Amino acid sequence: MRISSSPSPALGSIVNQPTSGELAAETPLAKASLTQSSAGGDQAFVQFGQANDNTSFFSDAEQSGSSLMSLLTRSSNSESTSSVDQDSDQVSPMTSVLSTASASPAASASGPANAPSATDAAFLDNSEYSSPEALKRWDPMVAHLPPEEREQAAKELNRPIAAAWMAREHGPNADKAMAFINANPALKTAVDVGKDGGNADGKITNKDLKAFAKNMEKAADNADKDLAKYMEDNPGADPQSLEMVRSAAVMPANMPLATAADPHHAVGAPDKTDVDGNVSAEGLKALIKSNPGLSGTLKQSSNMWSQAGFLSQVDEAGLTGRKKAAHSPDQVFDASNMSEWIRKSAPKNGGQFASMLSDAATLNSVAGIDISKLNAQVFEKPKAYTGAQKAAVMIKLQQTQQSVIAGRDLRNTEKTEAGLNERIAQLQADPDVQEYLNKSIPEQERSLVRSDSALQKAVTEQAQNVNSGKALQTDLATADKAVDKHNPNPDYSGAITGLSAQLQLQKDLFPDAQVPTAQQVFNNQPDEVQTKIADSYVRNFSEGGALKQLLGQKKSDAGESLQTADNQKAAYESVLPADFVNGERESYTASTLSELQNSKKGRKLLEGKTDEEGGPSLAAQLAEQGIGGKAFNSVMGFASVSDRLASGDKLGAAQSIIDSSRLGAEAIKGGIDTGAKMMGREASAGLGRLGGQMIGRAVGLVAGEATGLAAGAALGAAIPVIGWAIDGAMALGFGISAIIDAVKKHKAQKAFDHNVDPVLDQFGIAKAH
């Protein structure tokens, strides 16, 4: 089961959930031309350079791409979804370019008015206000289109600016421009509030027109800078991530329009509201359906970011510390949220994209499910509630859990965290929740990808890159560029785990396609690539380079460093031949001891000082609770280090540390694997990322340095699968930054209480005050 800590969507409205019959009625997907070689099977370990039989995954790439695209471009009517956005429209970016072309099937849901002929706005597109110089600001937003379509797409994006400048003139052109403004409600309201903002009064002045045009130009220029900076910082970004960021940049570039698009902002609207700089899903959907003259590129971007899963991720972008503690997802975003998302949270490679999409799909799976009338009975009488309801409660509690942890310096949150952990654990273990998410998450992933035709194309392109190994080689090259004098050894573990995450995403997106394993992709790489990874393994682990780098980091902990290195090592070993790995084990043991002895932090661990403080007492606690298996053995292994050192057995002590680290890692991995088995498929991108985050916590726990964790919360296999997921929920999504000191602590406490107390009261969980 995938557990996402991304901000939860608002859960206050009801949406019809698909029946079991509807879910079963999904049209069978055609087989992609990725066929598994019967000779290869799952035994993918081979010597470097050895011929491999598993070639059928990687042949005829062009045909494979065509087949994969056909799976994604099937009519959305063939698949029922559980999202509140079941009626979302897929908008072609060029719907208004060709006057002779009818609207695409995906766009036709918006009505004929949403696909005007090019001549309807030709007076704007061909005016002095759409000169080549004026259109340059839109170049980054249309760069993904075929060259012959880019100019017209840029003109469409520029229409609001051209109309505003033209309407300031005198004569027939001004009248035509004003008619164009009035025919597009979002534009009309945006111009109305152009000068002073806030309330649309129906009186558009020349000052409003000028201010709006200037605001649009500034917004587009700022979005260009964000996009350019992302591309400069991430030259190896995959096509999917690039498309997500490009689509995201279209939003702040059109922020004056987007913030005014909600029909409640318009003059004469019932329950009229002011334009306040925020963008909602309702506003984006209105922009798509009720503004026939606006850009198809803008509408396509609006369609993507109105999806609950994506909107929720942007909603809290940039929030950390006390701001996070006081904020619940409200399903709106502003220009700074989107800019922060592009700069700090956007995916940078295929593995991160897969993880982000999984998180968004999880949120979409519970979007619109009404939990407002539910209470603690969900936990006392779980059989009385559906899997969808319980899943929605679980996500809401995880969201609250994030805020509670972010507020640790505001209140004593120990009992609250324990209560949340217990409730979340129960829901994570609930078979109905697992069954619901197991079915709905892949459906939502497919729905999210289909929400944007450019994203569909990018996903298909990246799938071919992944299966051929091109994506892996790109990520390896990115890792090579990350080295510096403090970290001279490239770490390829992220590239390898990213490969696994992307292959899992393929399984979700193309359930009838045969998808290669990570080992099969690796074994089909050129000798130099396989050797490169093997050489890196030797430098990082057999020679101790990874541990040395980790121990050299500021504020690093020896136990956590050791565990992190072992986790990185495990990623390499997931693709390297077993006999090669076994041959390096003795060197790994010796180098580990050497690096620990050469480091002050490492010597402290070797001398058993940490064990004296925490190891035995924690072991006793675990024993009292009946916890055994790898988790217990890991703790006891660390506790025995000082005894071995006392007898002069330093090699034995080092091996105990390594074995104990590995047991802790295997315990966590066991939890992940168990969760994956519950899903009936391999660990998701989110789970893989969670494992990497949690392994350090495990060592902190076994070394007696954990704070605020219930006994065993970070250890997996010896405890139910829910254990590792409880605290690990925060490892997904945006994460929580350390709380910063502030003068107005009392005010922050009140905001924190106001944020989390209603949910805690609703579900009978102890409050933090």
UniProtKB/TrEMBL annotation:
Residues 70-92, 99-118 have a biased composition (Low complexity). Residues 1-20 have a biased composition (Polar residues). Signal peptide: none annotated. Residues 1-28, 69-119 are annotated as: Disordered. InterPro entries: HrpK (IPR031613). This is Type III effector HrpK1.
